[in-house]
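Subject: Interface between my chains keeps coming out wrong

I've been trying for a while to get a sensible model of this assembly. When I model each chain on its own everything looks fine, but I need the whole thing in one frame so I can look at the contacts. Pasting all components below, labels as-is. Any help appreciated, I'm running out of ideas.
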Amino acid sequence: MSAPPKQFRYIGKHRRTKEDPRFVTGTGSFVADVQLPGMKHVALVASPHPSARICAIRIDAAMALPGVIAVVTGAEYCAATESHLVGVDAPAVRRYALANDVVRYAGEWVAAVVAESRALAEDAAELVEVNYEPLPFVMDPEKAVTPNAPLVHPTHGSNVIFQRTFSWGPVEQRFREADHQLKFRARWARSATVPIETFGVVANWHRATGILDVWASIQMPKFPDQIARSLRLPGNAVRVHFDVDVGGSYGVKRGIKHTVLTGYLAMKLGVPVRLIEDRLENMRGGDMHGPDRIFDMQVAFDRDGTIRGLKIRALDDVGAYAGRSPLQLGKPVGAICGPYQIDAIEYEPISVLTNKTAQEAVRGFGQAPTNYALELTIDRVAAFLKQDRIAIRRRNLIRAEQFPYLIPSGTTYDSGDYHTVLTKALDAAGYEALIAKRDALRRAGNLAGIGIATCLEPSGGNSSFEPLFNPKNDTTTWMDSCLVRVDLSGAITGVMNTSTAGQGHETLVSTVLGEVLERDPNTIRVVHADSLNALPSNSPVGSRMAIMLGGAAAGAARKIKDALIVIAAHNLGVAASEIVYADGNCSVGRDATKRLTWDQLVEIAHRKFHKLPAGLEPGLQAKFVWEVPTGGALPTAEGRIQMYPCFSFEAHVVLVEIDALTAQPRILKYTCGHDCGVMISPDIVHGMTYGGIAHGIGAALYEKFAFTDDGQLSSGTFMDYLMPSAHEVPSLAIADHCTPSPLTTFGQKGSGEAGYLGAPAALASAINDALSPLATSIESLPMTRLALFEKIEAARHHKGIA
Amino acid sequence: MHHITLKVNGVTRSGEVNARTTLVDFLRDTLRLTGTHVGCEHGICGACSVLLDGEPVRSCLIFAVQVEGQSVTTVEGLAKPDGSMSVLQDSFCETHGLQCGYCTSGMLIAAHALLASNATPSEHAIRDAIGGNLCRCTGYQQIVEAIQLAAKRRAGGER
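Reply #2:
Try treating it as a single job with all components included. I did that and got this:
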């Protein structure tokens, strides 16, 4: 289906967002803009060693500096707070904001200094003297799993924090029967989304009321609960203000340790306290690095290109501590075969501790690396068989008529039309002309290649990887909510229950409320609750808000609409079924004389109890809490589980040229076919897709948190951690397609991770196509200029054409 | 402490600053003009861009004492005299040339400076002008579109 199934009034239309005006006028409210009277500032003392015993900490000189209020170290802090939650069953991997006794990575926080200004706090931090006894450390995850490796957490007894082998379908049989097998290794480097705003938090403790107020730049499920738990407070003692504008996140703004520490300091000192990371603190000790994976891939396939089976071993380096990071190996279970018909798969995720900065959630929650490995596999099968990469994909892609489609790991894909989206992408890219251009570049002596990637974006996050990866965790709901109020003036307000980091949730909610209630979205206000008056939310992770917040807003709006119809029927003396609702007004059939307007109905609801039908609450408000579609089940013993409910699809087509002299790759043309069902706000969906592609370009070509052999982060600034600018990101073209989801309110699917889930795979495909005349290839990210230069030089020497 | 006087968004402002206080900290903490944002504090990301005597500069790389007597324009100073959005600001809203809004003030400053010197910039010139400003949300596409739209509207006589 190439068009939405029904005509919408506001959904799918261009409309300005509710959020943009405050940002273009410089009047957003970011955490660093929060100014409280008497607020004090935190600077951090960080470990220079990747592994060491803390022998002594001397704070006298720091405390003696005028303006310094406190220096807190791990001994005090760890005794007064609880360890943060670990996503897998590894209770000995304890984690606090400040190290106690030992440090486990270079950059780990050892002490916090509170002073009248940030500058003074930094001065004092330099005066804190820490004596360390260096200890053995391990930086290579493959060495970390060997028997005699230094243990990052000796009480855990191993550097492996999670390992399991799943086998779904007749894997060994498929490998025996298939005509061919291939195996190879692929490397996804440690990178992250690196928002331009670092993480920040302001906390203020009201001793009289016993409430800790928190303003933080966060995107974190169950954030208030975790803060309260670690501070040994009841949940209703922590009030997180969700109306803070978050300056980008894309997964990484988790901030548990920052907030527990700042909350502790505010409670201890009785003053408002602010911690805003500087860039080095953010890069080194902000605990926001993404997946860092070694894939060992095996594929069994027939000579006609049919993929018969896969074996995937994914070893992920989570660094020195773990929160939800090991679960990033879990989400790909729900799309483990990608968009392909592969019914026998073995998957061995291994999560490994090393002496690196801790890993955190990054856009896609582990799916982008897996998609990259899958797409490399498809391309290698094509190369082996000397068949066209598109033909191999077409042979294996799930066909439109096969949906709903059950994959071997237990997830059912809701809907899709992958072949059509791929066709649209190829047409939009002008594929034949693209080939001609590539070939012309090659004839002129350049390296040039076309990349193809067809990838899934699981959406509507339900966190089913929690019970899958931790039998002690039987979480089966991951709801979200919306409260809708119509006030006496007839104005509509939607209340959402989480913070926003640029995804345009206020626009989403107002569009949905406007659609259902048939009122102009521009007149609808959307506000963010604080955590003490909020309905349940699991935050905007897992590409879930169009589905979950959109669904909740629609549910609440329908309740309002139903109430209005009931009031009208009661007052017009007819059955509710006879009422026609249009633009908020209610009439009996088309009879304009028997009609109550929106304003009249609202006034009855608010002021005229005598005109309300029995049993109806006065006022006009409704809440709706929505469970993730398909949710509610625990995994089977074999580890089969319905992971996310909805599956968006993207087909990337890209032409890349590699400079003959410098080996600098240059993207000449980029097209993405995209199907995320019904788009509620096309401008927002397109924007996130463009941004996701840019993130993918960074991960593929430039970005890496590199560590030296002696354990130091060597890319802690924007001079060494290179992010694509407007020069590196080309003009991007998107070809839209719409296959509605049967599971959601309007047919929408998620799109928050769009682009990122396929761009690295597409660029790897293009680069390898460009390298193919030299009979060399690259399966390691980032494919930097230097890495390409070395590959090309080695290949030319090998061929004797240096 | 040093006493400095400068013009900010057309208004004469003064304050007491430490020699080591950066211009961005002075704007944000002393003058409470929080529309200018701090991103990297080492001159790469461009989030802190302001106009100094009309030229875009990184306010994280300039000390406040260095701008004594000069004229600074921040994002708060880009609106029309009546306080409504400039054509450029309005165009960013029209094309959704932003998402989280954090880099936006720097982008607007860079684009404003571009359009002041080049009324009909090519896409290449636009990318060049914002090439020193990092954005992690948009992939730059809708920012480029916003600047193209603003140039077109200004060419059509809008001010």
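Reply #3:
Confirming on my end. Chain A has three domains: 39-135+199-276, 293-464+634-799, 480-537+545-626.
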